[in-house]
Amino acid sequence: MTATTRDLVLARIRAALGEPGGVDHAREDEESVPRAYLTAHVPPDDPAALADLLHRNLADYRALVHRCREDELPDRIAGLLAARGSRTLAVPDGLPPGWLATAADTVDLVPDDGTLTAARLDAVDSVVTGCALAVAETGTIVLDAGPGQGRRLLSLVPDHHLCVVRAPEQIVASVPLALPRLDPRRPQTWISGPSATSDIELDRVEGVHGPRTLEVLLVTRAR
Fold first, then answer.
1. Under CATH, domain 47-220 is a member of which superfamily?
2. pTM (2 decimals)?
3. CA dihedral 217, 96, 102, 82 (to 10 degrees)
4. For the segment 145-204, what is each residue's pLDDT rounded down to a tens digit?
5. pLDDT in tens, 58-74
6. CA 166, CA 128: separation in Å to the nearest integer?
7. CA distance linking residue 212 with residue 158, whole number of Å
8. Nearest to 154 by CA among 218, 216, 210
9. For a tag site, which of 3, 28, 100, 101 has the least CB within 10 Å?
10. CA separation, residue 107 to residues 9, 10, 15, 83, 161 (Å)
């Protein structure tokens, strides 16, 4: 007889308590669950199509998306900061220094040494980070506090977030394909567009829980 959900829950509780009767039943039922569902709804091995889909979905969430080659990145970052009028830029630890080779002449860099507070970051105009990966089907960028990404505070407090996504190696088709590439022990931030919320009348307000403006640079290798 097939175990019910109640049986599975009780079996796990018995196993956790070290009581007999739960371990084998729970494991046997879990192993019999069919897992033939799709892991992606688009071809996961077409880099150009994934980059285009990510671009469209990010834009649909009102993120501003720019494409450039790797050798163009320093000038593009400097240009976007200048267009916004940014004068100060938060810089996470481990960010490739070449990314800011041009911007360093036009903005004041504020490196994060672990002591930057929310109050200090609130006075910073922009922040630039890398990412862990990006999900094309959902238009989502994932940060996990790795090198060049910084603490979660950095990407939530400044009003303007510039995020660099390297194509194709950092773009995956779907969430099921993204999860195995992420370490669940790391602090993850999943971003789908700029921070936004709506009141009971569905009036959209941006910038309540994070950056009001998200700009994404999809970067390809220089030819």
1. NagB/RpiA/CoA transferase-like (3.40.50.10420)
2. 0.81
3. 40
4. 999 999 999 999 999 999 999 999 999 999 999 999 999 999 999 998 876 666 666 676
5. 999 999 999 999 999 99
6. 14
7. 9
8. 210
9. 28
10. 56, 60, 58, 12, 15
